[in-house]
Amino acid sequence: MTLKVAIDGPVASGKTVVGRALARRTAMRFLDTGTMYRAVTWAALDRGLDIADEGALSDLAEALDVRLAFEEGEQRIMVEGADVTDVLRSPSVEAQVSPVSAVSGVRRALVDQQRRVAEGDDSGIVVVGRDIGTVVLPDAQVKAYLEASLAVRVRRRHDELRRRGERRDLEALTEAVELRDKIDSERADSPLRPAVDAVIIDTDGLRIDQVVGRIQDLIGRL
């Protein structure tokens, strides 16, 4: 059976950087499910779809050819055969991915794809997102839910944007993170919450390697 590690948490809780580091350390594949929602968002914007049209977004997610390629365990996102990985963090996608990812039809289409990817081979996989332990992989042998205070998460997101050359006002960024939390936790389909059997890790004040080490300890107990 494929070893599955599910890492969930709110925006900027550290799940992506921790998941990627864990996958590298353990030689497992890595899947950031958020990039798949970004791919649908990018495609919707590229096609000029109305982001408020849930039916159109659901139809797009069902029909869109989104594939994952793995290079040395790292994922690349292909849409209709083109590698779009490097454009999925653009400000336009960033601004619209939350409402797109809240659409039930979009989530159903992508959850099916995510489950298929997770069953890929016996090397094991680390999957990060907001509904992995509860919806996508409820059978994951290891589940971790990462938390962090709002102030720490805003600072992390601010630093991430600055590294990409983007400038954001801290007050506006705080409001954006709070809105993302509200959308994620209140959506009707698979809202953000810890799985009942997840280990909750508060990442405030912890280094990446410390969080990775805690999850490795969970794997070692299997």
Overview of this structure, please?
There is one protein chain. A hairpin with a 2-residue loop joins strand 3 and strand 4. The protein is an alpha/beta fold. It has helices spanning 15-26, 34-46, 54-63, 91-101, 104-118, 132-136, 150-163, 170-186, 208-220; strands at residues 4-8, 29-32, 66-71, 74-79, 82-83, 125-129, 142-147, 199-202.
Stretches with pLDDT under 50, minimum 5 residues: none
Figure out the total of helices: 9
Estimated share of beta-strand residues: 15-25%
Strand order of the largest sheet: 2-6-1-7-8
Share of helix, binned = 40-55%
Structural class: alpha/beta
Number of strand elements: 8
Round the Cα radius of gyration to an integer and report it: 17 Å
What characterizes the major β-sheet? 5 strands, parallel
How would the global form be characterised? globular
SSE string: EHEHHEEEHHEHEHHEH
Mean pLDDT: 92
- Tell me the span between the first and last alpha carbons: 13 Å
Briefly characterize the structure.
The protein has helices spanning 15-26, 34-46, 54-63, 91-101, 104-118, 132-136, 150-163, 170-186, 208-220, and strands at 4-8, 29-32, 66-71, 74-79, 82-83, 125-129, 142-147, 199-202. The chain is of the alpha/beta class.
